[in-house]
Write a structure and sequence with these properties.
The chain has 408 residues and is α+β, with helices and mostly antiparallel strands. It has 14 helices and 20 strands. The strands form 5 sheets. It has an 8-stranded mixed β-sheet, sandwiched between helices. It has a 5-stranded mixed β-sheet with strand order 17-16-18-19-20, sandwiched between helices. Strand 5 and strand 6 form a beta hairpin. The two termini are 23 Å apart.
Length: 408
């Protein structure tokens, strides 16, 4: 499948579809997003937020830098300080650009005492992170120095872990099912013979890994194990997606963390009025928006479904005398919330070919007959289906397909 993989390469398609660009002046591994690429990112992030909001999450926001003391407390400094962008402030404090968000989120939770009645607390935050990757390891959007995590953290009691995991699992299945991915699940556990790689004591790891096993049994999921694939603070469920070229990618992850709450002394007050240690669940649905876009661009060959396509409809007047009618159609489509553009230069045949090359889901042709009948002739660039309908009928059908996020 190498020729098809080269044809679908996200770096080439990203340039041809005008989604993102890299600049020598900005630096390698630092993608810049065009209006179309930014729209894609926002649509994906909005979808994840819609799924989370329905399950009780709240948005939070954090700064992009921190004093090193935060990472010393979390345990990240000892393990990852060489991967951080670091600098000294004017008042001589050492700061770092954040490579992850979880330590910041612990400090939002720690702002006040919590009753067991207020648990769980669910924080969602799509925010950019930074890692000083080696230049030779950078690869398009797949490995970058600036990436956006669609991150979330749940602070809950141990008895609430299963329910919260299953809620996140439902989000993962709905999100990836929209794109036609088949997922498999990996139980990523620690390597017992390498205790120096992990935080916390043996009993916490055994408890956390037992809970994850029970969750997969309750879900009835087919799983395989990945010894040594755990995060340094806890075991996790990794979801593996197979794309249209039969390549497997690790995508979403749900991580169970019993160690960071210890290090930051995170508690709630239980029914007996005593402080009870909470646990922390880390969950990223896309992982990073950049890497997910690299996967999805190649999976779809750049042919995004209607709901996600930066341009959803191109309107093509047959000739100059049809331009006013075509402009009116574009205006009505935009007014209805459909992303539409007019294409009036070059021959009709060339404009149709361009709409296919630009992977626009469908195009509308208007000529003498359409003007006389107050209709539009619509051709689907994915299926090749062609029909002539009233403009209002086309708008109604298009909005329905966008709402249901049809995978076409």
């Amino acid at each position: 499948m190498q020729p098809e993989a080269q044809e679908n390469d996200h770096k080439r398609l990203g340039r041809e579809l005008d989604l993102f660009v890299f600049s020598e002046l900005v630096g390698p591994g630092l993608p810049l997003w065009t209006p179309k690429g930014t729209l894609l990112r926002n649509l994906l992030d909005d979808f994840v937020w819609e799924l989370r909001k329905a399950r009780g999450y709240e948005k939070v926001e954090i700064p992009h830098i921190t004093k090193k003391e935060l990472y010393e407390t979390s345990g990240h400094w000892d393990k990852f300080k060489d991967d951080l962008f670091r600098f000294i402030s004017r008042d001589k404090h050492e700061f770092a650009m954040k490579p992850m968000n979880c330590p910041h989120h612990t400090q939002i939770y720690a702002r006040k005492p919590w009753s067991y009645r207020e648990m769980p607390q669910r924080y969602a935050n799509s925010t950019m992170c930074y890692r000083d990757e080696q230049t030779g390891e950078l690869n398009g959007l797949s490995r970058v120095r600036a990436f956006t995590q669609d991150d979330a953290h749940v602070f809950c009691r141990e008895g609430q872990v299963k329910e919260e995991f299953l809620k996140i699992w439902d989000i993962v299945q709905e999100f990836y099912g929209t794109f036609g991915f088949t997922l498999t699940t990996r139980l990523s556990f620690h390597a017992p013979k390498q205790p120096e790689k992990y935080l916390g004591d043996k009993s916490k790891w055994e408890t956390a890994e037992r809970i994850l096993r029970e969750i997969t049994v309750e879900k009835g999921a087919k799983i395989f194990e990945g010894p040594g694939e755990a995060a340094f603070y806890g075991p996790k469920l990794d979801f593996m997606a197979k794309d249209s070229l039969e390549r497997e990618w690790q995508v979403a992850t749900i991580q169970l963390d019993m160690n960071m709450p210890d290090r930051f002394d995170l508690t709630c007050v239980n029914e007996k009025g005593e402080k009870e240690r909470v646990v922390m669940i880390h969950a990223a649905i896309m992982g990073s928006i950049e890497r997910f876009l690299a996967v999805i661009i190649e999976h779809l060959g750049g042919a995004f479904p209607l709901w996600l396509s930066p341009v959803q409809v191109v309107v093509l007047p047959v000739s100059e005398k049809h331009a006013a009618y075509a402009n009116g159609i574009v205006a009505e489509l935009k007014s209805a919330g459909i992303r539409a553009e007019l294409s009036a230069d070059d021959s009709l045949g060339k404009r149709i070919r361009n709409s296919k090359l630009e992977k626009v889901p469908c195009f509308v042709v208007v000529g003498d007959k359409e003007m006389a009948d107050k209709t539009v002739t619509v051709e689907n660039n994915r299926s090749g289906d062609k029909q002539t309908v009233s403009l209002q009928e086309f708008i109604t059908l298009t909005l329905a397909r966008i709402k249901e996020r049809a995978n076409i």
